[in-house]
From TrEMBL:
The chain crosses the membrane at residues 249-270. The lineage of its organism: Eukaryota, Metazoa, Ecdysozoa, Arthropoda, Hexapoda. This is peptidylprolyl isomerase. It comes from Ooceraea biroi (Clonal raider ant). GO terms for molecular function: peptidyl-prolyl cis-trans isomerase activity; protein folding chaperone. It is an enzyme of class 5 (isomerase). Residues 1-58 form the PPIase FKBP-type domain. PROSITE patterns: FKBP_PPIASE. One of its GO terms (cellular component) is membrane. The keyword Cell membrane does not apply.
């Protein structure tokens, strides 16, 4: 990975291929420069031409960087990612955010003087970037990847408002409305002043009710039962039950009379 570029990312790709003392004419296509948005001084979709001379080089092994160096570079890449995101260059933004996560990983940090506070600062920076990554992935349609990042944020910060709100929207879009509704209710307790939540909660509640009716209707069709048929079957069942009760009563009366007659005959016979 080349150092964070403050000019255009295309140069990062070229410089790592050059030898010390080499001079190269470099043409950078808009995709690796300023994209379709351009800048104040560079028109949209403009390729850039550079003459680059590599005077010196040094190793860029991030495992050899101390805490301060990694944090500084991570911040630059985060800001660069935000810059690409604002320009709607989403894939370029995503690549910058991925580099931040590599830089903020504390597993390979060799600085013996890193404190717990330093680790917490790095974690906080990585969570901010994961939230940004999730939003970028949502816009790119990478839903599962976005959910993975949001779940990571919420694992460390269960009350992160942005992550909760984005996760609820994603779940609602996936049709998991009940879980999305529960998340919004939880979020409403955290930020009761957030007016948009009530609208979203109400809309999801209506969707849940509508979905329940559709499911019920689907089950009826699967069983070949219409609404009227169901009502008729209930009435028919009641009639059957009533007739059954009457028949039981009749047989009880007949059975009782027969028992009385039989006992009289037996009694007379014995006498």
């Amino acid at each position: 990975m080349a150092p964070a570029s403050v000019y255009c990312d295309g140069l990062d790709l070229v410089i790592v291929l050059m030898n010390i003392g080499e001079v190269a004419d470099v043409i950078v296509e808009p995709r690796f420069a300023y994209g379709l948005s351009g800048t104040k001084d560079i028109p949209a979709g403009t390729p850039l031409v550079y003459t680059v001379e590599l005077l010196t080089a040094r190793s860029f092994d991030i495992t050899q960087f101390n805490y301060s160096q990694r944090k500084e570079l991570a911040q630059k890449k985060r800001l660069r990612g935000n810059w690409w995101y604002d320009r709607k260059e989403l894939y370029a933004a995503l690549e910058c955010y991925k580099r931040v996560l590599v830089l903020t990983s504390m597993e390979e940090l060799l600085d013996a003087e890193v404190t717990q506070n330093n680790k917490e600062e790095m974690l906080k920076l990585s969570l901010v970037v994961r939230n940004n990554m999730a939003m970028t992935q949502i816009r790119l349609g990478l839903i599962d990847a976005a959910l993975e990042n949001l779940n990571c944020v919420l694992h460390h910060e269960p009350n992160n408002v942005k992550a909760l709100h984005r996760k609820a929207k994603l779940l609602a879009d996936k049709g998991e409305c009940k879980e999305a509704h529960n998340i919004l209710l939880e979020l409403q307790n955290l930020v009761p002043h957030m007016k948009i939540l009530q609208v979203e909660i109400s809309a999801l509640a209506d969707t849940i009710v509508a979905n329940a009716k559709k499911e019920k209707s689907l089950y009826r069709r699967m069983l070949g039962i219409s609404g009227n048929a169901n009502s008729n079957s209930v009435l028919s069942k009641k009639k059957e039950d009533k007739n059954g009760i009457n028949k039981k009563m009749l047989w009880s009366v007949v059975g009782g009379a027969s028992a009385v007659i039989f006992s009289i005959i037996v009694h007379k016979f014995v006498l």
